[in-house]
Amino acid sequence: MRTSVVWGIVILTFVLLAGIGYGSLAFMMRKSEGMGAIPPETVADYVHAIIEANRTVYATEIVDKLQEKGIAEAAEHWRRENALPLPAQFLIETGRLVAEKGNGVKYRLASLTPIYVWNAPATDFERKGLEAIAKDPSKPYTGFVHIGRERYFQAIYPDIAVAQACAACHNAHPNSPRRDFKLNDVMGGVVITIPMGQ
Ligand code: HEC
Predict the structure, then answer these.
(1) Residue 3: which pLDDT band, with cuts at 50, 70 and 90?
(2) What are the φ/ψ torsions at residue 69 (nearest 5 degrees)?
(3) What is the enclosing helix (H) or strand (E) of 193?
(4) Helix, strand, or coil here: 85?
(5) Which single residue of 14, 121, 138, 195 could bond 104 by disulfide (Cβ 3.0 to 4.6 Å)?
(6) Which residue among 96, 109, 175, 181 is best mutated to probe the pocket of ligand 1, counting the most ligand atoms within 8 A of its Cβ?
């Protein structure tokens, strides 16, 4: 009788320990899967890095060089004039192609004082974000939004007047509502949208 009680305890303990062991393994696996999923902030940082690198190389290695050599000019009405798109328009155009893919990832340039209304904030979230990055350009303004039934992560990165030409061209543009841009001012933002499912 006594031995069977001892065996009973031994078996029960074994079953319990095995259960706890399996449970924590399953938990750890789920946790590591979760950790493997890249947070949307990081995805937005990746996308932003690519957009900015492409725009910079386009501006400095293509537009600047072709203009210096007198081969081609960048001009706002590049389609009509058979010219090169301005770097801002290069970003806007590639963003348009990305949106056409229809997988939910989007990006655009926006500003509180845009040359064109289509670059104005489209939502309250975008307006708040553009205001926030104008005050503190050290980090993007981020958050989750709903468009229809879909949930999206949005990140708005400051777009800075890195060259005098940025400020000069905007200040002189007949459509521009703002004419006092200076070097290093926040001129607007790059709005990146990433789908999060329903
Ligand atoms: C030669 C003129 C010119 C230069 C230089 C220029 N831009 Fe622009 N920028 C424009 C035009 C024109 C648009 C509107 C493009 C469109 O929507 O088709 C624009 C659009 C923008 C927008 C979107 C909001 C808006 O005003 O419509 C931002 C933000 C912006 N530019 C920032 C910059 C920055 C930063 C630089 C320098 C790195 C720069 N721009 C250099 C002409 C210029």
Answers:
(1) confident
(2) -80, -5
(3) strand 186-195
(4) coil
(5) 195
(6) 109
Pocket of ligand 1 (CB under 6 A): 76, 86, 88-89, 92, 109, 111, 114-116, 119, 159-163, 165-166, 169-170, 187-188
CA distances from 79 to 20, 23, 74, 85, 185 (A): 67, 63, 11, 8, 29
Q: Which tokens is 23 given?
A: 């449970």
Among 51, 86, 156, name the best residue to mutate to test ligand 1's pocket (greatest count of ligand atoms within 8 A of Cβ). 86
Scan for tokens 């963003």, then name that residue: 95
pLDDT in tens, 24-57: 655 555 555 555 799 999 999 999 999 999 999 9
- Going by alpha carbons, the residue nearest to atom 40 of ligand 1 is 166
Ligand 1 center–CA 104 separation, angstroms: 25
Please tell me the predicted confidence (pLDDT) of residue 21. Answer: 59
Ligand 1 atom nearest the C-alpha of 162 is 38
Tell me if 98 sits within 8 A of 87, measured CB to CB.
no
Cα 89 from chain centroid (whole Å)? 17
Q: How far apart are CA 11 and CA 44, in angstroms?
A: 52
Alpha-carbon distance of 114 to 121, in angstroms, equals 9
Q: Whose C-alpha lies nearest to ligand 1, atom 31?
A: 88
Report which secondary-structure segment, H or E, holds 170: helix 164-172
